[in-house]
Amino acid sequence: MSGGRQPLFTRVMCSKPARLSSAFAFATVSAALRRISSVSSFSNALSRPLKNAFRSIIFVLCAPSRRVFYRLDMARSQKLRSAHFIGVPMGLTAVEKVLALKSGKSSVRPGEVVYPVPDFIMIHDGVVMGAKQELDALGITRLAAPEKVVMVTDHDVIYGSARAAERGAFNRRAAAQWGVRHFFDVGRGGHGHIFPMETGMLLPGMFYFDNDRHSTNAGAIGAFGFRMGAEISRVLATGTNWVMTPKSVRLTIKGRLKPGVHARDLGFHIAASLKRGALRLNFDYRVLEYAGDLDQFDLAARAALCSSPTEMRAYGVFFPPSEAILAHARRHARQPFTPVFPDADAHYEAEAELDVSALEPQVALPGGVQNAVNVSEVAGTRIDHAFIGSCGSGMYEDMIEAARYLKGRSLAPGVRLFIAPGSEQSMKQLAAEGIVNIFLEAGAVMLPPGCGPCNDAVIGPVHSGEVSISTAANNNAGRFGAKDAKLYLGSPATVAVSAIAGHIADPRSIEASDIRLSRREAA
Fold first, then answer.
1. Strand order through the sheet with 182-184
2. Structural domains of the chain, count
3. Which of 15, 170, 310, 392 has its CA 20 to 30 A from that of 214?
């Protein structure tokens, strides 16, 4: 049962099998139906329209049970134990604990299919229309748990076209028709992978479904976000979805980063080490769990270290919350929470150690975060465009880091710098502290909280032949506009210093100003 193909049926043991709830029966049958629909020989024999029709039939068959399933009897489900647990040590990784807790089970194992009840369900503005149209076509007009749905507007924050404005209007109507209580429209929240952590919506030990793959950011605060892609509509209709428990790998960090070296540099280095084979870990549908000298990383640094593994196909990333992170969570929590930590005897598919004490600032060359090299190898490369923000480096602390270098300085002629804080809360705080003025006086363009240019260049794009350095989530060709533009990635410090110099530069080449954090100093 560990790894491999998903089982057609999940065998269970129960003291009274006849009393299995209809919810559990629904879970088992729907998993089987979806498994049948995914068999390659069957799938390849059908045209796309027929495959979509088949999926829709399955979805309709499952729909009548969605409310029963959502009200899953947790006390009863705790009695269920997968047959393959017998005789196996019960030490759990952190994410296994989260999935067990949210599935009403005492334990889970890699490869086991569970139906976790999420703390919330996040859907971003770009997929609302598709999800609503799919559900409407199936006659599903009411969501299973509208009080849990979080709709965020972070991709199209500035409508650059009439079509984008129409999509925004559609999303507002959908939120009203669905009865969504947590709708964060333009100017209301910020980046969906950042503001929930900053404001206490996302807390240690939580689990949620998300349509976007950078839900891995949840690991920064000790939570687990599971991406669904366009299939988030299933979760909206039923309140949950099957999840095959992923394997976990553990990376132990040794040593401390040198001054001038940012957590984002470490993230790039990890990706490059995987590419070279220096780290013998497989991230594909795995959860990366960090261990070791982690107290040096605040919440923003942890978010940065959740970003690059996503580009290396990690399905989740997890940091055991430090006391500082827990203190931040307690200050902002909107509800009680239970942090989770891995057991001492937890089983990992693989483990590795990484000494970071000698690490230099990194730059990811065009084509992927895994193409990272020391900044000295590309120093002097002329740039036209720069961006600070995104889910990897858009938190308050990242903005302060950039301001330390931009204070009292101006951008190089011909360089345009865009800055997008990750949340409205951060934007207000930065404005109140005069940090926004530092950016503006340097010549930067402030963007509203959200994805910024990282969303396929809907704002702040590059044109043919230009060179950009940014803190974006990735630098795949065409990410910022023209496909022949060269996109480099760096830390907030590296991007800020490069924008001042007019070329890629080592952040240690100029002295940073002393700007103190006014909040979350310990986090």
1. 182-184, 149-152, 120-124, 207-210, 224-227
2. 3
3. 170
Domain containing 387 equals 365-504
Q: Are 173 and 191 in contact (CB under 8 A)?
A: no
Asked whether the beta carbons of 3 and 110 are under 8 A apart, the reply is yes
* Angle value at C-alpha 134, between 131 and 138, nearest 5 degrees: 135
Q: Judge if 171 and 319 occupy the same domain.
A: yes
The contacts of residue 251 (CB under 8 Å, 6+ apart) are 270, 279, 281, 288, 289, 290, 291, 292, 351, 352, 353, 354
In a domain, 345, yes or no: yes
Max Cα distance, the chain (Å): 75
76 confidence band (pLDDT: 50, 70, 90): very low
Tens of pLDDT, residues 319-377: 999 999 999 999 999 999 999 999 999 999 999 999 999 999 999 999 999 999 999 99
| Per-residue pLDDT tens over the stretch 19-41 | 333 443 444 444 444 444 444 33
Assigned domain for 4 exists: no
DSSP string, 402-455: HHHHHTT--PPTT-EEEE--SBHHHHHHHHHTTHHHHHHHHT-EE--SS-GGGT
Whether 67 and 206 map to the same domain: the answer is: no
Sign of dihedral through CA atoms 178, 183, 187, 192?
A: negative
Q: Tally the C-alpha atoms within 13 A of residue 440's C-alpha that lie toward its C-beta.
A: 8
pLDDT over 90 for what percent of the chain?
74
Domain-located, residue 24: no
CATH of the domain at 439: 3.30.499.10
Q: Is the dihedral of CA 69, 72, 78, 79 positive or negative?
A: negative
How many alpha carbons fall within 13 Å on the CB side of residue 214?
23
Q: Is residue 19 part of a domain?
A: no
Whether residue 107 sits in one domain with residue 76: no
Shared domain for 263 and 333, answered yes or no, is yes
Kindly state whether residues 104 and 79 are assigned to the same domain: no
DSSP E strand stretches across 28-187: 81-82, 113-114, 120-124, 149-152, 182-184
